Amino acid sequence: KLDEPLSRIATYLTGSASHAEKQNTIKYLEILSAHPDAANTLANSSIMLVLVKMLRLSKAYGLRVHLLSLIGLLIWHSTSIEVDLASSEIIKVLADSLGDKQDKVRRYAMAALGELVFYIATQNENCSRDCAGLASPTKD
């Protein structure tokens, strides 16, 4: 039931709106991301993939900062992130942002990447406890 509104937001963010309008939309999504249910919904929707794509393509300093902030907040507040996010090259995009010439972009990129690494580590930890009977391909 949320697919259409989320799709409209994703379309709006990729459309011809000005940087200021896109930043205002992202700021609003930052507010929503503080709620775990909203964060889960946004992180597992097409919006997260759009945010990663926008971050990869954007050269605008302010927009990049807000994109990184939102991505970090969504990862932080989400209790469950779908595997589809890995196909978005999020780790590569965040790592590339660490080399940005702007200090604030680098700090926000490090924060978002840290949240993602922590999330991945805790998921692997949970799986190793729950999946102890499964064979590991690296142990051969």
Automatic annotation (TrEMBL):
Protein name per the record: Condensin complex subunit 1 C-terminal domain-containing protein
Lineage of source species: Eukaryota, Viridiplantae, Streptophyta, Embryophyta, Tracheophyta
Record-annotated membrane-spanning stretches: none
Entry's Gene Ontology molecular function annotations: microtubule binding
Record organism: Nymphaea colorata (pocket water lily)
GO BP of this protein: phragmoplast assembly
Gene3D superfamilies attached to this UniProt entry: Leucine-rich Repeat Variant
Family annotation (InterPro entries): ARM-like, ARM-type_fold, RUK
